[in-house]
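Q: Here's a chain of 132 amino acids. Please give me its 3D structure as tokens.
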Amino acid sequence: MSDNYNYNYYQDAVTRPLSNLFERVIAYLPNILAAGIILLAGWIIGSFVGGLLRKALHAIGIDSISERVGLKQLSARSGHTISIPAIVEWVVKWFFILASIIAAADVLGIMASQISSITTYWVMPVMLLLLW
């Protein structure tokens, strides 16, 4: 009889935490789904608005102004093509993406201080490397 009791005790000791974990994951899935939708919407909206601004800046001829300022010569010397509409598009797109990351983190219950440390130690260095 004591062997059966020990077996049930150990079985319960394993199944109860796994059951609790499963219940917590299932309860958290709507938040994860909502955060994913927010991130996707931020990326789509940011890309759309950034592309619209790029086209608008091309239409008003902002590139001719940048040539007068000497941006074309600077970009030729650096070996990279520097375009003001492309830079504005990139900044606007990433503004929307970062805003959606903050909103998604709020849905997931991640605190602003955690987002700040992630941004400081991971996102900013990666962005600096991409710009370099």
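Q: Can you summarize the key feature?
A: The helical segments are 2-60, 62-69, 71-78, 84-108, 112-131.
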